[in-house]
Amino acid sequence: xxxxxxxxxxxxxxxxxxxxxxxxxxxxxxxxxxxxxxxxxxxxxxxxxxxxxxxxxxxxxxxxxxxxxxxxxxxxxxxxxxxxxxxxxxxxxxxxxxxxxxxxxxxxxxxxxxxxxxxxxxxxxxxxxxxxxxxxxxxxxxxxxxxxxxxxxxxxxxxxxxxxxxxxxxxxxxxxxxxxxxxxxxxxxxxxxxxxxxxxxxxxxxxxxxxxxxxxxxxxxxxxxxxxxxxxxxxxxxxxxxxxxxxxxxxxxxxxxxxxxxxxxxxxxxxxxxxxxxxxxxxxxxxxxxxxxxxxxxxxxxxxxxxxxxxxxxxxxxxxxxxxxxxxxxxxxxxxxxxxxxxxxxxxxxxxxxxxxxxxxxxxxxxxxxxxxxxxxxxxxxxxxxxxxxxxxxxxxxxxxxxxxxxxxxxxxxxxxxxxxxxxxxxxxxxxxxxxxxxxxxxxxxxxxxxxxxxxxxxxxxxxxxxxxxxxxxxxxxxxxxxxxxxxxxxxxxxxxxxxxxxxxxxxxxxxxxxxxxxxxxxxxxxxxxxxxxxxxxxxxxxxxxxxxxxxxxxxxxxxxxxx
Length: 564
What we know:
Blueprint: H1 19-34, H2 38-67, H3 71-97, E1 99-100, H4 115-126, H5 130-150, H6 152-184, H7 187-216, H8 220-230, H9 237-246, H10 252-280, H11 298-301, H12 314-328, H13 330-355, E2 357-360, E3 363-366, H14 372-387, H15 393-397, H16 402-407, H17 411-440, H18 447-471, E4 484-485, H19 487-507, H20 509-517, H21 521-560
Parallel strand pairs: 1-4
Antiparallel strand pairs: 2-3
Helix pairs in contact: 1-4, 2-3, 2-5, 2-19, 3-5, 3-6, 3-8, 3-9, 4-10, 5-6, 5-9, 6-9, 6-10, 7-13, 9-10, 12-13, 12-17, 13-14, 13-17, 14-18, 14-19, 14-20, 17-18, 17-21, 18-19, 18-20, 18-21
């Protein structure tokens, strides 16, 4: 009996996954995020226009030495300007804007993708963004400058360097944010990182004084020499190869391209290691210590020691919960570190840099004195920046906010509890900042001026951000990276941050005016008046925004729930 032979079922050929698929997937996800979200489209358009405006300014800065036929200035613009760009891509995502996580790496964990495929694909997708386009337009000025100084060949080589430099910026940004996100999930590393960042931020102010003093008494030939040295580092190598050709040093081009390629490769390797650990949760798999049995009762254990003073009622429970979230959630911890860093850096930079320093026979000599008005302005910025963290406070909760909606928590109570919990961490920071800046300036009597301006601007910022968090909330991606932002949300965050800071600063201007008009009397009145002004503004904001929250709870929950 013959056995029938079954014909093989034809199957479609399996195509290898390439970076092109990741780019197409990102564009598709971006389009879906914008669908039916008119405000996101509007903010995206505004972000594109702002990016083009900055790009045009950068283009003129990089191209100006070529039009002026100044090879020395062209070298300094390429080395120093390019180096600042790389540093900006390293630091700004950690401090202000975050990184685009339209394609969350964790969603690829169960797919049969190699590490190389995943990293190259995500890297290609990261290049499709407004900041990358803006930087590419800006640094095109280097191509124009090199072409004007050295001809078409120099321009072509400069274009190659510009592309390599942009790749270096994106690779550095993704590697650092991914590694830092992984480290932040370890509490010990988080505490150490906070201290180190604060120390580095404290050193930036004195470093700025050194730079300003050096520029005022600059030997331009020496600065050109420094620029050439920077051009042999990864910070300046890709940006200066076109000028090397223009100056007859074509042999330097392959060496600098090799430096850039090795740096990009090392960064991508670093990113792949941290990316894999973030996906499988290796960083959080540390052994846990055995804990003793609780002694204060089940309810008492829910309240951290820092808020042991709150009432054991609904308000106290909300404060305790928020305090734990701010201490344990990596995304929230990243914002607290930002406040600590900028809170030290900005006052030192503004007050000491604004006073004016020059290099004298005995070292640095002050050319002007800081004033209470200048101090109040710098403190105003710090207080405003501290409060702007709550501009999307419900976005941190995401779908977990449904528990508050179901429980029917009153809006006023909700906002007061969130403000209180956040202030448990921030207000001590503001006090430390006031002590440090008054001590650095050698004016301990100005502590009240600094603390009063901080508390006033922080309080009015809480009030304004209470409204913004209810009316302009947006969802955050469900990822272990605390610096991650969805594509549309990144633009939204930038615009809402700017709106909040401008409004809060305007509301706190009376503190600056009083510092300028009242003289020495303000040294005694600044702290109590600033504290009363800030507390009153925060309570009023919670009262008014709470009514809006009561009416918008379902809409708010729908807005902050991540879309899959």
